[in-house]
């Protein structure tokens, strides 16, 4: 084993090698980068993912996302779960959240983060997250994506937010999940601070002030540096020092940005103030642009090292944009993602629709766009296919669909199956679409089933992206068809449901409830 502790990783490599050797290193199998952003909304970018540019697209400046889009394919209908841990476990396992049961965000061992509800009790979901062993209670045992890639000759690097397993469990450390290197990843899902001057939420000796203190970045303590930049610098040093090992690399670049707490990235903050933004909005926009700079720095590194032509980049967010606070442009909460409805934590489009870009040189047509719908668990089989890992057995059932054919064909095709979301939990915030729900999207139709009221809502997403018109009353046949499809799926994966406090009865699956 070459790698035991990520903190010693940099000592294990000789200096970087020349461009000819680098080409030899990667010519047979591609390097793969999954660049995942935390809580980034569908429109928190100057790249339009709709049929037209919105005011938010005109406000943000993300030139490197524009650069990536011009060199690859833009997915206008990409989806994730409405909160972070379910999405991240789905990406790493290929499982839908209803099956893996990590349906809410995780933190402490055996402790649920569900907020109290007057009418519902919530199921014993897998609060301990994803694990590399089958001996951890209330967790899902998986053969993870990095582990499979590592077994097939890849150097696997994790940088940034992990949030895979609860504190005190093996899954809290990305090294145990198949990563050769872990930069700053641990159990918590957000940073204590984005500021080096605040030691990223730690004391000077490196001990965390709270569970949110970001580990492993002591060399930046006290410096005037933003967390996004520190992660990028350290990641590029690791990649540079690793080039001599003759392995292709898998980089999971997982930024803590643009999660709360909002801090101003001073490199970009003032420009948004000068554009008339409020303080909160300028903070947030500066964090978005700092993330974009990281993407550009990584792409430029690939250019310098002559790795660009053999490196795949997949860009995605882990859930819809945060929309609880008012950032000033609309004067109202939950309006950050318009024309999408609501935001993070919601079953509406604002909570689950995310930006996604894929660059695959010589395979994906440059500056191409697809409306093909994908969901985050699809990344698992797709990346394995990209890496040439075609025959592998996993302990878990794979729900995701391989979309390599979409990338190669550059033509509109229909998705083979419906997409499902399941959230039998309470996030703790309130707002449109936030609550215990199960959801199915099949073609242009989307059905949301509310666990508390057992009400069903029906939307035609193609015609009503803002989900303003509930069509359930006028389309009973479609409601029944989607209720049957959703109910059958939830039964098939043995999905957990909440319990009604007054009756102690388990909330029924949607096909067992009269359509209303």
Chain oligomer state: single chain
Chain-averaged pLDDT: 92
Largest sheet: 9 strands, mixed
**What is the overall number of helices?**
13
Question: What's the total count of β strands?
Answer: 17
Family: Belongs to the sulfatase family.
Organism: Sphingobacterium kitahiroshimense
Cofactor: Ca(2+)
Protein name: Sulfatase
In brief:
InterPro entries: Alkaline_phosphatase_core_sf, Sulfatase, Sulfatase_N. With 516 residues, the protein is of the alpha/beta class.
Description:
- The protein is an alpha/beta fold.
- Helices cover 24% and strands 15% of the residues.
- The protein has 13 helices and 17 strands.
- The chain has helices spanning 19-26, 55-59, 63-70, 84-93, 97-100, 145-151, 227-242, 269-274, 279-304, 349-352, 379-386, 404-409, 476-492, and strands at 31-37, 73-79, 120-121, 130-131, 140-141, 155-160, 181-183, 249-254, 311-317, 353-359, 368-370, 374-375, 419-423, 437-442, 445-450, 456-460, 499-500.
- Strands 1, 2, 6, 7, 8, 9, 10, 11 and 12 form a nine-stranded mixed sheet that branches. It has a four-stranded antiparallel sheet with strand order 13-14-15-16, with helices on one face. A two-stranded antiparallel ribbon has the order 3-17.
- A hairpin with a 2-residue loop joins β14 (437-442) and β15.
- α3 (63-70) crosses α9 (279-304) and α7 runs parallel beside α9.
- The model is unreliable at 1-26 (pLDDT under 50).
